[in-house]
DNA sequence: CCACCCTAGAGGTCAGACCACAGTATACAC
DNA sequence: GTGTATACTGTGGTCTGACCTCTAGGGTGG
């Protein structure tokens, strides 16, 4: 009737490797930061060729679950969760993501992140947040440093929200936005105002006031968006990149496996 | 001082392939659904070995940008945008994602999706949405069919929101939730109530009432969550899967490349 | 006209040699 | 003794080319 086949990228051996490692992570044998055995050895122990093993590892590395370091070894990722850095930009060109859409998503997610953080942040988060606010003020004359601590502030806030999934989504958007920001921040003049906003957001979180935290975060982001001239276009035209009409197909295709 | 190296998975050849294909997609040479040349031939034209080409393709396939079909060929993905199906579950076991967190994210994203859809949906979306509502009512006695149209309804709503990024994030969460739902829906008794909710949401969107659409969607999701007994635990214990304490490190590590 | 089988074309796997990189041990010069 | 240069070892990266498996389509016999 409809689709029967599973379009998963589950090529025999590849998935075998992926599932094996997944299992090792699930039962705790492998923890973030751990190193897996050398390819030659690991391949032998799994009774597959090194090439196949590498395919599987490549798969895991592509989505950020593992990190491969030439000449050193392969490790389980340990940084903040994220859905493939490159993934986002690739998906972007493929589906025509636009800047205003990124900001819209950021506004939605981060304002909720702020609200949740206000409700759930622990002492240690308050401390870390306060430190970053201080660093931000201290970096007012150095745009590049300012941006670093700005990013750090938002990342800590993500963790304070107590929802790693939301944090991971935010991280994905943020890293995609980073390059663009790095360029504009340089010629930014009112970093003082931005610093002040961070401080106010921190105070709202500190005071466990979700409503205020959300409001301030929204205000902060709208200001940031305006500063980069990336508001949503009133008309239907592309801001950056080529316009991509692409007949919008209400594709029912590939409904969640089997049906 | 801090990190200097770029931890990107950019192994020479691999990235070379990825960027090449990315370029082909950007300049329109490759469109969703298109087939790329056979590996042997493509590899020769790029002056790299077939193995390297395959590594690159595997990378792209892993994040859902390309689809490989054994014995047929390799194609550019054309379905709804999504950040790697497997990616999510892998990230899940790695960072300890929990059910209530997935619901929380879904609640946040989808309620906003509904609000946006109410503001921006076009005629064609209204039509498609109405059709699915009808299908949903028609499937009240068939849980499996019901679920299919339920998913379709939400997917169309995502497209109607006019923000493909948000839609992609939603799709990622949804596909992860799908399996779990498939099990519970079977023994669900009040599908009628759910169907009614979909109809009301549709009407709110149709009436271009963002506030009401958001409110109804939130209500709908909370009911769904309650039906599956996945509210957020009052205490600090795990619902499913093993508890994973994992010393919460405020990892500053891997700040967005170079600094 | 339909069912079955065969085959061409495309991806999947394998084996083993060799290259490139990172970190450490060693040797030589001062 | 100290320090720097070099060699070695371990680990991932790439290449070749042969062979396996799957899919789709066309040919052939019933």
List keywords for this structure.
homodimer; 259 residues; mainly alpha; Arc Repressor Mutant, subunit A; Four Helix Bundle (Hemerythrin (Met), subunit A); 2 domains; two-stranded antiparallel ribbon; 61% helix; 3% strand; elongated; disordered N terminus; disordered C terminus; DNA-binding
Structure notes:
The structure is a homodimer of 259-residue chains. The first copy, chain A, folds into two domains: 12-76, Arc Repressor Mutant, subunit A; 85-227, Up-down Bundle (Four Helix Bundle (Hemerythrin (Met), subunit A)), CATH 1.20.120.530. In chain A, a hairpin with a 3-residue loop joins β1 and β2 (73-76). With 259 residues, the first copy, chain A, is mainly α. In chain A, 61% of the residues lie in helices and 3% in strands. Residues 1-9 and 236-259 of chain A have low confidence and may be disordered. In chain A, strands 1-2 form a two-stranded antiparallel ribbon. Chain A has ten helices and two strands. The termini of chain A are close together. At the A-B interface, α1, α3, α4, α5 and α6 of A face α1, α3, α4, α5 and α6 of B. Chain A binds a DNA duplex (30 and 30 nucleotides) through α1 and α3.
